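Thread: Newbie trying to understand structure tokens

Hi all, I'm a second-year student working on a class project, and my supervisor (Dr. K.) asked me to get a predicted structure for one chain before our next meeting. I've only ever worked with sequences, so writing a 3D structure as a token string is new to me. If someone could post the tokens and maybe explain what I'm looking at, I'd be very grateful. Here's the chain:
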Amino acid sequence: MKFKTLLYKKEKSLLIVYLNRPEKLNAFNQLMLHELLEVFEEVDREDSIHALIISGSGKAFCAGADLSAGKNTFNSEFNNSRDYKESFNRDSGGILALRMYRCLKPILIACNGVSAGIGATLQLPADIRIASSEAKFTFPFAKRGIAPDACSSWFLPKIVGISKALEWSYSGELIDADTAYKAGLVSYLVEHNDLMKFTKKIAQKLIADSSQVSVALTRQMMWTLSNTDSPYKSHEIDSQIIESRGASADAFEGVESFLEKRKAKFPNKISKDMPSIFPWSINEFDEK
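---
Reply by user tm_fold:
Sure, no problem. This is what the structure looks like when written as tokens:
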């Protein structure tokens, strides 16, 4: 695939995508949104891709929304689209965040530099965020007279707690990599030159010995079911998934490989072997 705002390469079972507008510090625009949405469609569609890494070209990860559109910067083109019928414009960052939320493969962020606004909030739906020692973060929405985007009012408090999320969002302060790590915004902090090597190592750890169907189901179970009001819905859904998976070729191979003391070769594929319960519905707003 060829893109104008992204660099894109496959390395074995990993897909690595770089936000690629370095002359604009990888500022986010509508074209980048659409190209990232295309990437996520391919990630879910292609069984050869087991995990996705997102980073930035040059010295920034993403300096936020491209403000060159002036007063129209924050106007989304998605109102009255086939997907959204409301009388209001859908936030572009939120459209991306929800697509990431629905992704069936692990998402890792290799944050290489400054991440401002949408550059910070688009990282929140990832599973693991890894920061270089040169990374910085800011949620400056109140300082621009707007409000948090990309569903970050849902994601950020779950990651760093409500108090810290409010402190950072009220002030719009610049957060250095060490502070971000100590607050739990990022899972790992590494030297700048080691960032991509380390991120690939973590990605491989996630997928090397695991069934891709099981990983996909685990991702969706953790993201959706951990936010229900009680464990009862979780038990209902995981019981059906375990019943289905227990009768699968993957489960047979998992047991046989353990008994034979060898590496498993799981035959099931996301494209054709997801259980019939998927996707499950938690509430009326869930995308099917």
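A couple of things are worth pointing out once you decode it. The mean pLDDT is 93. The domain at 212-273 is CATH 1.10.12 (Lyase 2-enoyl-coa Hydratase; Chain  A, domain 2). Feel free to ask follow-ups in this thread.
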